[in-house]
Amino acid sequence: MTDYSYHVATDADLPALTDIYNAAIIRGGSTADTEPVTTEQRKAWLDSFQTPYAVFVIDAGAGDTAEPIGFAAISAFNPRPGYDGICSLAYYITPQWQGRGAGKYALGVLIDECRARAMRMACTVIFADNAASSGLMERFGFTRYGLLPQAAYDSKGTLHDVGFWSYAL
Question: Where is each N-acetyltransferase domain found (predicted)?
């Protein structure tokens, strides 16, 4: 069994963040971005995260031998102050590490970090036919509170229903 670790993402992680996200875009089925992003676009995205929100790099291993294999992010659910304490979660794992417990680890990190940051509820949006991510949400106790039919295209041109999930922290 692989040991995983994580750290808060910095500019030094931008090449890995870009590669991981672009792999998800190109593969299809997990994001509504339809074209690969540039490192500059990822930098602007990373720079947009202000406390209490953050991006974490998920590593296989730890220390000098750690290999970035995914990332997880906590972002604002809505910028209006009445929604403070509710966040939006996202995570992406490189294809070769999917199905090996990295997604479970990433979601556990997100929940722990949400609690440490005094969030009261976490939400996420997942393509409804993404069985692995939907199953992980159920396993962690998230509730699907909505389904938007034929809502988003992926890079392959596939139209997906989108599920909306929440978790009381």
Answer: 4-169
CA distances from 120 to 33, 48, 117 (A): 28, 21, 9
Backbone angles phi, psi at 66, to 5 degrees: -65, 135
- The answer to whether the beta carbons of residues 40 and 48 sit under 8 Å apart is no
In this predicted model, what pLDDT tens digit does every residue of 79-98 receive, in sequence order?
A: 999 999 999 999 999 999 99
Alpha helices in 9-148 (DSSP H): 14-27, 39-47, 102-116, 131-140
Cα(143)–Cα(53) distance, rounded to whole angstroms?
22
User: What pTM was estimated for this model as a whole?
Assistant: 0.95
Domains along the chain with CATH numbers: 4-168 (3.40.630.30)
Cα–Cα distance for residue pair 112/17, rounded to 1 Å = 21
How many CB atoms neighbour CB 58 within 10 A? 27
For 48-84, what is each residue's pLDDT tens digit?
999 999 999 999 988 888 999 999 999 999 999 999 9
Q: What is the dihedral of CA 67, 20, 45, 126, to 10 degrees?
A: -120
Q: CA-CA distance, 162 to 159, in Å (whole number)?
A: 10
Inform me whether the pLDDT recorded for 1 exceeds 80: no
